[in-house]
Specification:
Blueprint lengths: L1 H27 L8 E6 L9 E5 L22 E6 L1 H10 L4 E5 L11 E4 L8 E3 L4 H8 L3 H13 L14 H20 L5 H19 L4 H5 L1 H18 L9 H25 L13 H26 L3
Parallel strand pairs: 1-6
Antiparallel strand pairs: 1-3, 2-4, 4-5
Helix pairs in contact: 3-4, 3-6, 5-6, 5-8, 5-9, 5-10, 6-8, 8-9, 9-10
């Protein structure tokens, strides 16, 4: 009898381990039971129309063969629908945290080209999930260190931006100013790579977003709502990305990089100051008295002029 009990005990242990292992895997990846899902959301910095949204499995910012795209370009409200098949989900499980959702191209309501924007994927647990794509999700998605990523999310919350997936339209003036300043910086970064391949443009843009996210993760709300301090933080981070990629950008020298950084700093400060003006003279971290579109109605044309001027200067400094 004791011999039989021992045999049953030995058989039971592997079964329990297998059950525990299966339970753990399921809790770690709730998508395992799904054959398909659809991710929908909005591309916003205001609403971005005409952008291509796709699942970037290798995280390089460039659409490759086999990476699924949204059913159509983003609509006037910035909305997209990205269907994923069972095969896509299998590839996504292999890719893990490397995979991102990317929006490429399109224009915002002021007429500025949106360029490259990124977002982490939502936890995929059902057949319908939501994730928005904004300049702020771009910074969070490219901040790879987990501790700094959480710090950055905390900083955004201190600005009244409830989470990094929140819409810019209904955020606080402080978060809108940061969004539009990041938009200006990313736009100029992409102009620094004008004429280069998509791989180079994506590389320098995403590296700049990562460095901006890292820098902002250590800042207070007071430092971010100080437009001079904010513009210095963003331009220095952008300049570091340009310097690190100076060979890919055509062998830029120190003078050229300094000129680009100066243009980006002026642009970021000008944009943040304009948002402050358009919101009634305050970069509040708690009030929601004016929406992003209302602020852009007041100062959008001036913001576009500011960013266009900076982009022209950046391109000029990039020519030898």
């Amino acid at each position: 009898m004791n011999h039989i009990k021992k045999m049953l005990s030995l058989l039971t242990v592997p079964l329990l381990l297998a059950a525990c292992s299966g339970s753990e895997t399921s809790s770690q990846d709730p998508s395992l039971g799904l054959n398909k899902t659809t991710i929908s959301g909005q591309v916003q910095q205001g609403n971005v129309v005409g952008a291509t949204v796709f699942l970037d499995l290798n995280g390089d910012g460039v659409k490759q063969a086999g990476e699924p795209a949204a059913t159509s370009l983003t609509a006037a409200d910035g909305k997209f629908v990205l269907p994923l098949t069972a095969d896509d989900l299998a590839k996504l499980r292999v890719a893990g945290a490397t995979a991102k959702i990317v929006s490429d191209g399109g224009t915002d309501p002021t007429g500025l080209t949106a360029g490259l924007l990124v977002s982490d994927l939502p936890v995929i647990a059902t057949e319908t999930e939501t994730k928005n794509i904004t300049p702020l999700t771009t910074l969070v998605a490219k901040t790879l260190d987990p501790a700094k990523k959480e710090q950055l999310k905390g900083v955004l919350k201190s600005l009244g931006h409830t989470d990094d997936n929140a819409l810019i339209e209904t955020s606080t003036p402080a978060a809108i100013a940061l969004t539009k300043s990041c938009e200006a910086a990313l736009s100029s970064i992409q102009k620094s790579a004008a004429g280069k391949t998509k791989d180079v443009i994506a590389k320098v843009t995403l590296e700049a977003a990562a460095k901006m996210g890292d820098a902002l993760a250590t800042k207070t709300a007071a430092e971010i709502t100080d437009t001079a301090a904010l513009s210095t933080t963003l331009s220095v981070a952008a300049g570091t990305a340009i310097t690190d990629n100076h060979v890919e950008l055509g062998g830029l020298d120190d003078v050229q990089v300094a000129g680009m950084v100066s243009a980006i700093e002026t642009s970021c400060k000008g944009v943040a100051d304009l948002v402050k003006t358009g919101s009634g003279g305050s970069l509040s971290t708690s009030e929601h008295s004016k929406t992003e579109s209302e602020i852009m109605d007041a100062v959008g044309a001036e913001i576009k002029h500011t960013v266009d001027t900076a982009n022209t200067e950046v391109e000029t400094h990039g020519v030898k």
